Amino acid sequence: MAGETQRIPQATSKRLPLYYRFLQNFANAGKKRISSSELSEAMKIDAATIRRDFSHFGALGRKGYGYDVNDLLQFFRQTLDQDEETDVALIGVGSLGSAFLKYNFQKNHNTRIVVAFDPKAPKEGKIVSNIPVFHPDMMEEKIKEMNINLVILTVPSRAAQDITDRLVEIDVKGILNFTPVRLTAPDWMRIHTIDLSVELQSLIYFIKNDVKDSQL
């Protein structure tokens, strides 16, 4: 069923978890098959974009039939390694970090926070929302001990690069960066930055321009 999955565009790669989530919703609702237009309406993504994304993986659907929901769900589960759990470390247990601990990703998919680090925590650790939290002095030891390759960074901006440098030294593969700092790291480390203030300002800009356009 699956075609060649190498060298797919980055924009397509970022949409794959969204496809998986919406397909789960359709499957839970008892939907057996779906068209690109139905998926487009649910996801608010152009149907042509969906068909183009799917074409990177070969013949996922059939002309005149559409897509089999369960087949698609199984395909994207395998593509995204949804059957394999990924352990994550959280660094910085302030307001945002605490919210991550309370939510934890395990409830919704295969990613879960298993350890956290914060300067206010003792070296021997404490339990917050059922997750052990240690002082950052223990970071290298615990991350290597637990074989963690993915880190969520919610520390103050002044500490972000120093923490990143330490993570590079222990070969952490990826950082989800919630600080506004543009982190410097080797090419082999993948960093995705989510700057909440920039996203908010962007939203405000578009809302204001939508209002201006409606008044023309």
From TrEMBL:
One of its GO terms (biological process) is response to redox state. InterPro entries: CoA-bd, NAD(P)-bd_dom_sf, Rex_bacilli-type, Rex_DNA-bd_C_dom, Tscrpt_rep_Rex, WH-like_DNA-bd_sf, WH_DNA-bd_sf. One of its GO terms (molecular function) is DNA binding. Residues 81-182 form the CoA-binding domain. Modulates transcription in response to changes in cellular NADH/NAD(+) redox state. NAD(+) binds at residues 92-97. Keywords: Cytoplasm, DNA-binding, NAD, Repressor, Transcription, Transcription regulation. PANTHER family: REDOX-SENSING TRANSCRIPTIONAL REPRESSOR REX, REDOX-SENSING TRANSCRIPTIONAL REPRESSOR REX 1. Homodimer. GO terms for cellular component: cytoplasm. It comes from Sporosarcina luteola. The keyword Glycosyltransferase does not apply. This is Redox-sensing transcriptional repressor Rex. Residues 18-57 bind DNA. Belongs to the transcriptional regulatory Rex family.
